[in-house]
Amino acid sequence: MPKTPRIPALVAAYGVAGVIPFWACAVAAAVFAPSREALLQAQLVYAAAILSFLAGARFAAAIQRQPVEATTLSLSMVPPVLAWAAAGAGAALGYSAGLGLGMAAGLAVQGVWDRRAPGLPAWYPRLRLWLTLGAVSALTVGALV
After folding, report:
1. R_g of the chain computed on alpha carbons
2. Which whole number is the average pLDDT over 23-31?
3. CA gap 29, 64 in Å, rounded
4. Average pLDDT along the chain
5. Which DSSP symbol is given to 66?
6. pLDDT tens-place string over residues 96-135
7. Contact by Cβ (8 Å): 82, 109
8. Which of 1, 18, 11 is nearest to 123 (CA)?
9. Which of 26, 60, 64, 106 could hold 142 in an S-S bridge, CB 3.0 to 4.6 Å?
C-alpha cells in the first residue's frame, strides 16, 4: 500500500493556526463567564468565515476542471449562505448552543465532502480530517460551556 504524501509544512502550520481561534474562544468562554456570550458569538462568526473559505476552495477546484463541474460549483454556494444565516441569527437573537452545534454540523459535512473531493492532493483528506475534528470539537465545547 503506497504511503500518503506528507502534508506540506506551511499548509499544516496555517491549518493549525486556523483552529486556534476556535479553541481560544471556547476556553476563554469557559474561563471568563461574564464574556461567555460575546466569546461564543465570536466563535460562531469565525466558524462562518472558515466555512465560507472552505466552500470557496471547493468552488475554485470546480472551476479548474474542464468542463466546469456544475454540481460542485452549485453546492459550494450553499455553505456560505447557511453560515451567513447562522451568524446573522446569532447576532440578532444572541448565541445559542443550537447555533454553535449547527455550525459544527456544517463544518463536519463540509469536511466529509472535502475528504471525498476528486483532483485534490493526496494529503488533503488527512489534513481536512484533523482540522475538521479540531474545529468541530471546539464548537461542541463552546456549546457545552
Report:
1. 16
2. 98
3. 41
4. 94
5. S
6. 999 999 999 999 999 999 998 888 899 999 999 999 999 9
7. no
8. 11
9. 26
Place of cell 477546484: 61
Rounded Cα–Cα distance for residues 59 and 67 (Å)? 14
Residue located via cell numbers 455553505: 79
pTM for this structure?
Answer: 0.94
- For 131-143, b where at least 16 C-beta lie within 10 A, e where not — what string? bbebbbebbebbb
Q: Supply the pLDDT for residue 84.
A: 95
CA distance 121 to 9: 14
Pull the grid cell for residue 143: 456549546
- Over residues 25-54, mean pLDDT: 97
All three cell numbers of 45: 462568526
DSSP state of 34: G
The HSE-up count of residue 37 (CA atoms within 13 Å, CB side) is 8
Q: Sign of torsion, CA 81 48 96 74?
A: positive
Q: Which helix (H) or strand (E) holds 92?
A: helix 78-93
